[in-house]
Records
---
Amino acid sequence: METGKQVIQPSSSATKPAVRIATAARRSANSAGQIALIAVLAALAAAFLFPLALTFTNSFMSAAEISDNYAALSASLSDSSGPSSDGSAYVNLKWIPDIATLSQYYSVLVKQPQYLFMFWNSVNIVLPIIAGQIAVASLAGYAFSFLRFRFREPLFFTYIVTMLMPFQVTLVPNFIVADKLGLLNSHLAIILPGIFNAFGVFLLRQFMMFIPVSYIEAARVDGASHLFIFAKIVMPMCRSGIAALAILVFVDNWNMVEQPLVFLRDAIKQPLSVYLSVIDEAALGIAFAASALYMIPLILVALYAEKDLVEGIQLSGIKG
Amino acid sequence: MPRRLRYSEMITAGLFLLPSLAGFSVFFLIPFAVGFYYSLMDSPIGGSFVGFANYLELLGNPVFRQAAANTMTFTAVSVPLNMALSLGLAMLLNRKLPYRNWFRISFLTPLVVPVASVTLVWKTLFDLHGTFNGLLVRWGASPHDWMESRAAIWVVIIVYLWKNIGYNMVLFLAGLQNIPAEFYEAAAIDGAGKFKQWKSITLVFLTPTVFFVFIMSIINSFKVFRETYLIAGDYPDPSIYMLQHFMNNMFKSLDYQKLTSAAFLMALLIVLLVAALFAVERRMGKSLG
């Protein structure tokens, strides 16, 4: 660790006057460009934030106000005869509620206790998938990156190819497998395939390819076991890759709709994503609050993991 | 280092792979193989072996051909756009920049918005009675049916980019983090310009990530079907009738033969692409040492 830090040190421009002067000159010349760049990024960011922001602000509107604003939408859904009669021909995109109210939240959380049940189901499904996928995929990724064995490349290729199959194709065989294993109508029918998805193996193998094989060989010469090298050298160096994996696996599984509908018979076992996918114009009055609550854990995970994502190599400091 | 395989290393590899391989075989490989077997039968239940007849029939089907052409056009336009934009954003946000944490989080938010909200917002904007048409009418123009015209494909591309740029940005950011800063310092001292540095350090180190992002972008380009379907239904404007619509409609009409053979045809195309990329990656990997 000590030597690693020394290697990293000189890279900071403070120790190299020539580099520092060059950077300073470039910085002042570019400051106008910098402002323009930030303006462009801000405009883009606003467009990206748009649906999220709209969902949150509209979640504080009353059901009546929502149905007023979106009346034109349901009109065009029920029949295509033309604008509705009350003059609201087009959707009224509104940011600020007339009167801010928590009535949507009250309806979702108090009047519909199944909402919290489903929230808990989602947590119970997604957390084991993330933990399991990271454990299983990092071990396999190590084998694919650093160990030589027969059929390594064809096997890895097979992993990738299975990812390309749309859900509908493997649905029937998957159903038979789950049935044979007695997993139907249990969360395990979703958790186990989630853990063994090739996605994690593929992602981590691509990140481990960065690590020079000479590191592993040097550690082997020093008498370290592969398990030690895996846990103490490779895993810390893959920190940003694991953070990326955690974010993306969380997002994918928190949003899943098709699998629960097929594998879980009981409504009480369904995750929140299924409930939200069927909230439609008829239930618009609570849809915004339901979505807002649904997004909060995702936002927290993104905020938390985003730090790891960008602090990858500086912290490990092993690579020289 | 001798290139021969050692017995003990094979055993270690087996142990590292065991958990993944066991679960992968049960939940992915076997269903995959069974699915392929079904595509060679004339009926999933009690059918007889017909070889590639289903495939040949499919290739002569005009609806399938239209869907395949649409999917290829969409993929050929949207995947490169997505990769270029997300790589550009990741590189910008990997530098020191005011508010960059806020920017990063903003570009990630489309990942967390539930499908129902995405569809609602999409409808709100692009519906015949949506906000854009409201504005057009207020400015004296006539409203345009965005989803039922040639414009629909651009709406789908925009939604795909909106939803997936953050996904790829996460991967590119993680990839960029793995490039040791000293490499750039050394190159700068050797007099390498910015573009030279980008070409011979950033791109070389990012090759495995680019390979990964490319495949995920293709897979995610099929997933945009979910949103398209919720907006436009089973039979949208012909210009956005994708392979996924075709497969979904075959699924609904229980035409399992057409569904599986369509899926495997699609996979075959991608596999050829992946094999080519695999070869490129290997060559780049060797030059990395």
---
Amino acid sequence: MGQKLTIEPVTRVEGHGKVTIHLDDENQVVQTRLHIVEFRGFERFIQGRPYWEAPVLVQRLCGICPVSHHLAAAKALDVIVGVGPDNISPTAEKMRRLMHYGQFFQSHSLHFFHLVSPDLLFGIDADPAKRNVIEVAREFKDLAVQGVMMRKFGQEIIEATAGKKIHGTGAIPGGINKSLSIEEKMKFLIGKDPLNVDQMITWAQGALDLFKDYHKKNKNLIDNFAKFPSSHLSLVRKDGALDIYHGVIRAVDTEGNKILHDIDYQDYLDYIAEEVKSWSYMKFPYLRSLGNKEGWYTVGPLARLNTCDFIPTPLAQKEFEIFRAYTNGKPNNMSMHMHWARLIETLHAAEMIKELLDDPDILEGELVRKGNKTIEGVGLIEAPRGTLFHHYRINKDDQIEMANLIVSTTNNNTPMNRAVELVAKSYMNGQEKITEGMLNAVETAIRAYDPCLSCATHALGKMPLEITLYNSNDEVIDIKRSE
Amino acid sequence: MSKVLNFTIDGVICMAEKGQTILNAATANKIYIPTLCNLPGLKPRGSCRVCNVKVNGKFLTACTTPVAEGMEIENNSEDIIDIRKSIIELLLVEGNHYCPYCEKSGNCDLQAIAYKYNIPAPRFPYQFPDRDIEATNGKLLKDHNRCILCKRCIRGIKDEDGKSIFAFKRRGHKVIINIDTRLSANMTDEMAQEAMDICPVGAIIKKEIGFKVPIGERKYDKEPIGSDIEEIKATTI
């Protein structure tokens, strides 16, 4: 008797999604799909709005990393107001970067400490009543405090640069609306213990050590769970350095050969297309040169460390060398290594915050520049979850007439579906009874990508996990629900 | 010297010059009465009704009613505040007021009064009217979604010959405020800024300069509306 399993909603991720797993008569997995069940429509309802509203309006897509949308939109509009991302003032660029690294730091910390640590500390198949952040706080108090404080530090950097912790207004077309005050700078540099940047660097190293230690003890799980070959795409600085704010697009195949050679992202449409499938509101991007079957790629922390040549801060570079040596310099395709890469980036973000706070440009200088207006612009940025594209075209009256957003999680659509299928097959094929632990394994694979399934502003409160088993006649034969 | 009138607001003894409106006299006595359509220097219209006060048991608009000797005025009684709140709530549901991405947020009188009166959500159902943005003018943009038809722009923004650049168009519930294409053709940047500033909401927007004032430095970021006037704090419910 064939079966269909549904995991809805997927828990400990940002936003709402569900997974369906179809089993045949021998309980072999025949098809798995990650469905995105919300429709947001920002690309449509921004049409007609004045272009300078976009950075403030579109960031409402997300409550976790709105800074990414805010900055990607501002970068696209830099092009429209004739300044261009290479020509904004040093103060504007450094303030934006500080905002962005603050966001990386808080978002990555949130993901590791709040969403992932329960799986690592208690085990994927532990009792769900145990496998949550409250129990982490109960049993690993110091670690939980670190997680909360690291997120707080990042959020306060955002507040100082954007005006608010969530949904600020700092970046405006052609620049920024404020510089940093000396009081703000000193607060972050030598602020009251523990909220200063040196403590953050130490804690970021501590989180990395925790992961590496876990890796040593659980090598098989970390190295082999949801491992599959993939291409990788990200922004890199023109000299090949890891850069999450500005650069060129680079993609490498599973062997590390470049398949996108540091292209100008204004031309992204010449290289990237999107496919629509009937069962998901999320599109499937792919590289045109390889077609929709072979052209899919992974974005995010793992992709960024697979595409870049080096990290331009010393402590993170040291960790990067260890990370790259683990796969002999070849691209790393181990899904759980995304956590490793994410923690190296967390350390890099803390180092960058320190570097920027020490930069005099952050305290004063020209804020906004103007140039000759054009009608179209593309903004690209590395959001914590991966590459984010914003593309706008305006009419002669300054109203947006076209918007195209390819968000990080959309870029990861195919790899997430692959990861889900792999894990479902390895954990469930031929099993008589489907357990909660098996279903959490599927969620663990999704969680590695830190997806923002429709961006998190609608995800409130406790999200129950519901699994429904159907027979081949679509009749419900069992329901499991964890509260 | 003009004649001095004695009157009370919520039992507080006040004084006014003859001919002074209740609103102006209250301001002179450091008592805040909220307004939306009124603007110092412009002839009062009494159209928004937010400045409703109770005078000897009767509801009157403070911006148009002159003070009389011995008047007993209620400004912060429960029924007055409820009327003001219901007017604000009706304005909020009648248009499309999305503060999260409105660049007037923090500088908006409607939003500031809603905060002052602790209005987390309107009691009336949202109407979600289908309204346009008029963006053909080179300097200004008119967002009809946010317009509360207070006529401040019609009364306050005039060309050098004294002709209004803004005017009502259509009638009844379809009325909108229109920008005169011919008169506005030579509008200066200063005039466009003045038009944006005179609008109590975000219906008139000067083009291309959005969100230039950082959060924390906007008009109502530090203190609630009316704080510059009042010594006797308005009751909030």
